[in-house]
Please model this.
Amino acid sequence: MYNKNIMKEKKKFILDVEINQLPSLLKPIITDSYRIKQIIDWIYVKKSPSFDYFSNLPKDIREKLNEAFKLRSFTSIVKKESILDGTIRYSFKTFDNKHVYAVFMPTESTKSVCISTQIGCPISCTFCSSGKIKFVRNLSRGEILEEILYIANDTGENISSILFMGMGEPLLNYKNLISAIKTLLSKKEMNISKRHITVSTMGVIPAIKNLADQMYGIKLALSLHATNDKQRKKLIPNNFDNSIESLLETCKYYLKKTNSKLTIEYILIKGFNDTSSDAHRLTRLLKTSNLIRPSVQVNLIPYNQTDTGYQTPDQIAVLNFKKILKLNGIIVNTRQARGLDIGGACGQLS
Ligand code: SAH
Model:
């Protein structure tokens, strides 16, 4: 028994391997490219959780795959479903006994998942409860994809959009993030439209530039949250000393290169950044950076109460803030909190 467990640990996690590496990895078992295509199809298109289900492959191949590889890495899963809006919060236990969170958010017409890219977060924003969890490590490409594959399987839904907005700072796990995104976009694999993939970042400038240059064309979301550098530093002390101006310039570069869309995320916190002067300052910032245009949207996120001491804004302040932006020609949307009863809303993933 003991030996068997050790053997299990040695198995390679097949989702960690990009498909162009699969032929050489599988060489001892299969050389036929037709068979490799079938395997890719089972893993990423049919999203099968076990090699045993690969029914068009001979039994001996399935057995050999089972001996050499694992197709899933999470060791247990806890699920909580919201009675308010059908949101499901998943907590996955990793091979090294840590926790990863992801959220499934269904509407009539869309099925989105919000996923994590790191265990803990090295940025530690003062308002975010995920940020309170000490950074442990990056998630691997396979673990990132496993969050999505598991949820697709569990809900039986066709996942229509992916939000990299869970725990962690995606652009500090750049290599694994890009590897996972390539699989999401690939027609042979998960085939999700670039317009339905959003990476949210507090602003890692070199990584945003890289992402722009690679031109995958996915959507970018910048967690701005403030209208001057001093105010932003209070929320994100660990902000690499990037000024708001330089962040917005970088976002403009992203739009120019990719022809994609940008969301400016702005958490409204009572008495901190929710006044009329803040709304006017935000307008001026966007105007100066030439970011008032159809490809840019501001998402207002009324702060979800956590144990950080910050407070949810009054509804009237939210409406007033929105009105000012709108009157200035800014496309603005107020994000509805989802899964509030299960700790699944923004900033509650801990
Ligand atoms: N590190 C990335 C992605 C994770 S945070 C980033 O900073 O964008 C995803 C979004 O949730 C961010 O906009 C974040 O600022 C927001 N958020 C965090 N805590 C929140 C809270 N308590 N209420 C509302 N939004 C919150």
User: Anything to note?
Assistant: Residues 127-128, 165, 169, 200-202, 223, 265, 267, 301, 303-304, 306, 346-347 surround S-adenosyl-L-homocysteine (CB under 6 Å).
